[in-house]
Amino acid sequence: MSRRLHTTDLGCIACDALTDLGAGKEGWLVDNPALLISLDTHSVALANRSLILILHWQSSNNGRPDPDNNRVVKIRPDLSPIESEYISAVEWFVFDDEVSRVLAVGTSRGYLLIYSLHGKLIHKQIVNTGKILKLRVRGTKRDLTEDTSSEEVCVVMPGVIARFEGSDIQNMLQRWFQGTDSQFWNDSFDKMDLDDSGISSTRLPYQLWNVSKYGPCSDAAITGVMPPPLMETQSSQHYYCAVTIGDDAVISAFRLSEDKSRSLVGAILSKVVPATFSTIASFSKLIWRSEQKPTKKPEVKAQPFARASPLTCLKDHPRKGEKLTLSPNGTLAAITDSLGRILLLDTQALVVVRLWKGYRDANCLFVEMLVNKDTAASRSAYHGYSKSDYCLCLAIHAPRKGIVEVWQMRTGPRLLTIPCTRGSKILQPTYRFNSAMTTSSSYIPLEVFFLNGDSGQISILNRTLN
């Protein structure tokens, strides 16, 4: 009987440039906690504390390295040596329009950097003083089950969460690309929001919350919009639910408010004061116009925190929360802890609905599989699968056991167990920004990729189980 294959080889990223990140040593991909990885279609970004490598790979027929297909871009961000600043997070921002994709970088001083595929710095902005732990891209697309679409970038810092609207980032990138094109063709460049070095000077608006009531968090996520508190006057503002994990509290949940204050006076002042100040400032410029231009940019003041109300907290010393993974619609979260357990959290009811034990150092990713064999067999090659054809599962990589397990959500059985080579990681492409309605023929399910650090081979978990 032939051996059943559950993965398909796609290509290889092996190249000499990887030696700058430690490649060539056994376990270099998994043993270095400072090594960061972010995957995109045909591209992978790897970074240590000071260097970023962007590798563009293409699939080969024999599954072996093809140096002619690999293109490498090296990025060395301008980091502060005085503050010992270093790279602490990387993530792709992928769009369906002409903007295509860019690489976002977080630093230990709280700066958000955005680079083009060619290594050009597009945008630099401080979010808050502190280390950026995670850049989390998430969105819900409008379809038959979702009435609205929401796309966001969540920046996680110790005890702090920031939220950027995906549309604001996309608009800024469109202006930057249009501005660089205008500069190339020697058109009028003064009206573009770019400084002398070609970096976007537009400050992206965002919201900021302090979620350190139960101690600093090691990871966090905004799971979605939630209803306002009981006995509170209905308003047009949104409330978000945030889940955090950390050393002091394994799981904590907060209700995040858009407004910094609920009072009527505060609402009036927030509208009247900026308009009044702007009018006075404009009038004063007409009277006291100065011919000297400032040589330095004005310092950006720290953004005040909006209101974050605690909802619940789970403390179980000495257990500590380590990693958090969200399902596509944000209703489930897989949380790993320091005792080798995996908790499946219902983020709407804020209840743990499932528990796995004996999975130390595990990594989890949600994946969508074609579990029903009849459905998979009935589809012809000319018809794609719709979202309803797929079943949500959880892939658990247990490196100490050398296996990857696939479990059906929420309470289904274990569907698959496959061996995983030591020194490998499971990865998932980032969410693709697109507000258009998702059709059945265009639906792309969540998939899990394998990256072998020793060989550089990239493979994908097959969607069907048979």
From TrEMBL:
Transmembrane segments: none annotated. Signal peptide: none annotated. Residues 28-427 form the Rab3-GAP regulatory subunit N-terminal domain. It comes from the Eukaryota. This is Rab3-GAP regulatory subunit N-terminal domain-containing protein. It comes from Abeliophyllum distichum.
